[in-house]
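User: Hi! I have a protein structure encoded as tokens and I'd like to know what sequence might fold into it. I'm fairly new to this, so please keep things simple.
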């Protein structure tokens, strides 16, 4: 018999009854039933009930076992007594009568429980992540992640893509976040950067004639952490294709992402015909460039009904042509208690309040706004936004560029509070027609709004003859249930257009050549039209595992302060290491 096991802890079935078997694993829990010990033995594959009674030669050893001891157990497989089957376990019809126990690895007092999935302080969980990963839910999440990545690879290969690995040590690039820099020992005073994304390399692969690339790529960004974005590193399904239009990218990727969601959705419906929503429309209707389409609420511009009205606050605002009033319908929200609650919530978000109208029996409007604008205007608003008796509407006013994010939060809050958002489905969509540029208020200059390597709609002519802030790009995102899960674009492969695009954002031609020399040179020697995207593996896994925190689907994540509590990173470098790298530490004054 094998030194440690003849079977795994998830393998035994009724067909094994009568066999002498050997199992090894962790003691999940020990139950004492009138002197008979029941030991649940667990390994990666499952759990088996083992029984030791006072007649067994292993009984004395069994009495010493505690949770998370690693043990080997020999014994005979037998049928569980009638009425004690456990239908939740594949091994639930059998048990092992134990005759021998060997302790392979004793365990000290546990800093956190492994049995059960109760909440526990995050810093303890991360410091003892090897214990945390033994817990059933987290263990399942990690294995789901493994299967999702396998599914992605299989589907990408089925679409004719080839997997390539791109370098980890590279040059700094303006991808929109801070780089992690790595000092060079061989080249004093110079630094490598960890890639924020394999953007330039995958485009260079298209220059090299490889046609269809993908990679499960590690990416590194020195960003502040949040629940849906891990500090430090993350993984993406990175994709690039040659000789394609935007429609070709959509046609290739939609079945891959839809297929992955359908495979792991556990029966939840997944949208098959993805909506395509222009960026401006997404902000206008949903107050978000990653709208949760499970929420049926769509906002509308109702400015005309307030222009010149008796509600002077809005009427005065509307004297400025850039200002608007948006309505957020609230089906079933027509109670004073709910409206007051939403008003208090808005104040908690730093707003002066949230005006509202309620529609009573007979369709009559009620509330301060209705009293100020009168029944005719109230009826006209109702007719436009389609509210009924028992409904309400909330109103946000001012410059849409400044209030759209708040209006989106209010829409989400109404959908959540009134149970309008269907939590039992996945709603995927493309967001298209992103603006090429935006105005950077901090630096008082025009800047790239998304990916600097994207092709502007209208090409070089648009860059030369159009107001930059009106140029749309061939850029697109995939959204799901309020999260951006992928982003991409058709690339700007024309050297003159590339230089002009960067010039508008304040980069001179020499700076473009210095910072993107490899790609700029490649464009001089026959560059195919190409495009692609990158889908966030972590976020997709998070959604499919039904959690809202990426730490629940990652093996060894950092905490909110970007510290690895398990390995003790970041740590100080030794004087010798710093000397070899020609680096001096200049700490901030305390």
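Assistant: Happy to help. Inverse folding works backwards from shape to sequence: for each of the 590 positions I chose a residue that suits the local structure. Here it is:
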């Amino acid at each position: 018999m094998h030194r440690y096991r003849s079977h795994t802890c998830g393998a035994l079935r009724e067909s094994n009854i009568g066999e002498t078997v050997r199992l090894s694993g962790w003691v999940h829990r020990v139950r004492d039933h009138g002197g008979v010990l029941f030991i649940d033995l667990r390994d990666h594959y499952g759990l088996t009930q083992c029984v030791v009674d006072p007649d067994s030669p292993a009984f004395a050893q069994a009495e010493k076992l505690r949770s998370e001891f690693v043990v080997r157990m020999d014994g005979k497989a037998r049928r569980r007594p009638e009425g004690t089957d456990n239908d939740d376990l594949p091994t639930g019809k059998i048990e092992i009568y134990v005759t021998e126990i060997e302790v392979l690895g004793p365990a000290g007092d546990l800093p956190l429980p492994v049995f059960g999935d109760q909440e526990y302080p995050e810093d303890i969980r991360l410091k003892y992540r090897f214990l945390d990963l033994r817990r059933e839910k987290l263990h399942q999440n990690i294995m789901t992640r493994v299967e999702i990545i396998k599914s992605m690879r299989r589907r990408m290969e089925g679409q004719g893509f080839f997997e390539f690995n791109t370098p980890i040590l590279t040059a700094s690039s303006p991808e929109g976040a801070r780089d992690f820099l790595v000092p060079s020992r061989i080249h004093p005073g110079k630094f490598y950067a960890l890639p924020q994304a394999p953007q330039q390399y995958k485009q260079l692969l298209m220059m090299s004639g490889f046609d269809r690339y993908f990679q499960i790529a590690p990416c590194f960004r020195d960003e502040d952490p949040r629940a849906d974005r891990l500090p430090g590193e993350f993984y993406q399904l990175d994709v690039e294709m040659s000789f394609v239009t935007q429609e070709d990218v959509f046609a290739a990727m939609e079945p891959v992402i839809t297929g992955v969601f359908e495979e792991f959705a556990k029966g939840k419906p997944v949208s098959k015909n993805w909506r395509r929503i222009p960026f401006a429309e997404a902000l206008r209707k949903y107050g978000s460039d990653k709208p949760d389409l499970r929420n049926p609420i769509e906002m509308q511009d109702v400015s005309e009904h307030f222009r010149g009205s008796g509600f002077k606050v809005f009427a005065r605002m509307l004297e400025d042509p850039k200002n608007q009033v948006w309505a957020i319908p609230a089906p079933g929200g027509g109670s004073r208690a709910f409206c007051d609650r939403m008003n208090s919530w808005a104040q908690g978000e730093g707003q002066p309040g949230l005006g509202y109208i309620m529609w009573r029996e007979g369709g009559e409007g009620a509330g301060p706004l209705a009293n100020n604008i009168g029944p005719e205007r109230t009826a006209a608003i109702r007719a436009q936004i389609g509210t009924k008796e028992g409904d309400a509407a909330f109103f946000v006013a001012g410059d849409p560029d400044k209030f759209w994010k708040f209006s989106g939060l209010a829409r989400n809050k109404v959908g959540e509070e009134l149970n309008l958002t269907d939590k039992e489905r996945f709603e995927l969509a493309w967001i298209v027609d992103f603006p090429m540029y935006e105005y950077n208020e901090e630096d008082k200059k025009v800047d790239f709004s998304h990916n600097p390597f994207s092709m502007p709609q209208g090409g070089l002519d648009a860059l030369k003859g159009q107001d930059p802030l009106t140029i749309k790009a061939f850029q697109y995102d995939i959204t799901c249930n309020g999260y951006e899960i992928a982003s991409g674009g058709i690339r700007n492969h024309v050297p003159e257009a590339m230089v002009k695009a960067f010039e508008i954002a304040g980069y001179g031609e020499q700076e473009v050549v210095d910072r993107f020399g490899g790609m700029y040179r490649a464009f001089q020697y026959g560059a195919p039209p190409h495009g692609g995207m990158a889908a966030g593996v972590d976020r997709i896994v998070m959604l499919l595992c039904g959690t809202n925190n990426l730490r629940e689907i990652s093996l060894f994540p950092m905490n909110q302060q970007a510290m690895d509590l398990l390995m003790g990173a970041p740590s100080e470098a030794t004087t010798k290491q710093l000397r070899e790298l020609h680096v001096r530490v200049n700490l901030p004054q305390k």
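A useful reference point when you look it over: The mean pLDDT is 94. Feel free to ask if any position seems puzzling.
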